[in-house]
């Protein structure tokens, strides 16, 4: 897939699934703007990894839950790169607890980053994509947003909200040459799942028809397709990347 002379913004792009997506797009020639909230060294390390592909890469510290900060960083990326072609909404957090024990702050934090953060980034790139009459927006939902999960009412609500937002914005922007889609990963091998015990991992794998935990690259491959010219007629879709877990 060819992404030459395109620019991608990847939120939560300094590690895990976000970094894998950034790598896949950079491999195809895209310039990359990484948004992150971790330690600065994390952003710099990701930048160094991506620069091996020979494209322009910059990292920006940004809490996407902050409406004003999101606008500021979008304006900065457009100024630095000359425009944005792909918006990948990948930033997300968890605060897992049963509703019985969940604090209001646990619910608000997850909704603010996962759902409102996605809205903020779409809102601030919306006019830009309309004027270009081109754009690809891909947001990371989750199978939890489709089927729910005990102890993740806040996370499930945020990811289900991303699905509704994706379908709504897809209807709004389809006539402007902008596609809006989402991916719904299942169990993916990230820092969070890698920290689990072997016993828990085996239990997880036993639930998956494909009999393996997915990789960040599995998700990145689907996101790259949705950004490609080959997917120009695909919009409003939610593609599960779960090895069949939510069939």
TrEMBL record:
Translocase as a keyword of this entry, yes or no, is no
Free-text function comment from the UniProt entry:
Catalyzes the NADPH-dependent reduction of beta-ketoacyl-ACP substrates to beta-hydroxyacyl-ACP products, the first reductive step in the elongation cycle of fatty acid biosynthesis.
Q: Name one GO biological process term.
A: steroid metabolic process
Domain of life (superkingdom): Bacteria
Question: What terms describe the molecular function in GO for this protein?
Answer: 3-oxoacyl-[acyl-carrier-protein] reductase (NADPH) activity; NAD binding
Which family is annotated?
Belongs to the short-chain dehydrogenases/reductases (SDR) family.
Residues annotated as domain Ketoreductase: 6-186
Q: InterPro entries from the xrefs? A: 3oxo_ACP_reduc, KR_dom, NAD(P)-bd_dom_sf, Sc_DH/Rdtase_CS, SDR, SDR_fam
- Name used for this protein in its record: 3-oxoacyl-[acyl-carrier-protein] reductase
Q: How does it assemble?
A: Homotetramer.
Q: What is its EC number?
A: 1.1.1.100
Source organism (scientific name): Ruminococcus difficilis
Q: What positions does UniProt annotate as the active site of this protein?
A: 155
